[in-house]
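Example 457.
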Amino acid sequence: MRVVRNLCTILCTVLAFLVIIYSIFLPRIVLKGESSLIINYKQKYVEKGCKATILGKDLTDKVKLKGKVNNNKLGDYKIEYIVSLFGIKFSQERIVKVRDISKPVIELNGLENTYVCPNTKYKDEGAKAFDNYDKDITKKIRIEKKDDSVIYTVSDSSNNINSVTRKLIYDDKTKPEIKLSGSEELYVSLGGSYSDPGYIATDNCDGDVTNKVKTSGGVDTSKQGSYEITYFVQDSKSNKSEVKRKVIVSNGVIYLTFDDGPQMGTTNVILDILKEEGVKATFFVTNKGDDSLIKREYDEGHTVALHTATHDYAILYASDEAYFNDLYSVQNRVKRITGIESKIIRFPGGSSNTISRRYSQGIMSRITKEVLNRGFKYYDWNLSSGDAAGGTPSSSDIYNNVVNNLRHDRVNMVLMHDIKPYTRDALRDIIRYGKQNGYRFEKITEDTEMVTQRVNN
Ligand code: ZN
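Predicted structure in complex with zinc ion:
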């Protein structure tokens, strides 16, 4: 017994001795931070390190780390902190667990608070789900429909669950919509008639509500000015909408003037179009072409005016006398055909022409005065269709030249030539544009104010 007791005493003493040796003479490694921790997938692992000592002396800079954390791959990673002394390794370890701990994100299609038309069923707009690890998991969304809500729930492969609720509100807060036919700003001719181009009204819940639209305001086409028409509509839940249209009663006038004719093949077609469109124009004629065309111009209510007989600059601008001879020659022709002694003239090249300088210096300065003395009135233009510019313009060039330069705030004296096929072909569209945009068409009479350019010779 005694031997056993002594043995025990010896063993206990040795053990205690070893414990003391260990605690005093062996290195101690203490981790900073937890020895087992979880980081999120793709979250950066931050090494907090450790502190190592022996007999109170710092050994930290002798510590070597073994092991790495791959945060791009789920798993458990071991990091060892090792101190080697006299060929013996002392170590501590830390376990870093890379896990997916983020919830997936749910994005609703449509609104979180969704208004649903009363007495209708909500048609689910669905949702999308994305997870940091699984990526698109839209297909895994579970949808639970209730009377006043829809609940979207999704779980990722690591069992992180998220859920979003869409609230359904059975009410109509959306205004009806009025769409005007035609322009929001339109022109109507002074003295013409205004007819509204109309409108369509729709409501998200009530459908077509066009017949509930009320209009106010009117257009007095006998008075020049700007008018406003208001279109108002209200749906069955009293959501209101209104739009306005501006209607301008315009005094814009277009004088269509045709020079250098008449000519069979173009003038006759131009006369047909003018007749069909109910528009009167002015023809500055020469001594060329068929008498019958001049007769038609006159019979159909147009103004037959004078350009000159020859339209030959070398002849008619040779002298003042030559000019008047040429002018009277065409005046006589017109009188012979129509019985009218026309006093309405246009100078070939316009009063501003400079080509006449070649034949007689200062002739335009003299004859622009002399024609007035002799009772004529002359009309230049302030809008050229460009149909005498040379080359072969298309009819759409002529159309654009005219309509792009029309103005509501003036008389538009439009220069055209009834001997040009592209002018003939552009005419109907020009007339229709003018009508649709509130212009009226007039022919020149002796009461029409002259439109003159600056004389340059
Ligand atoms: Zn001419």
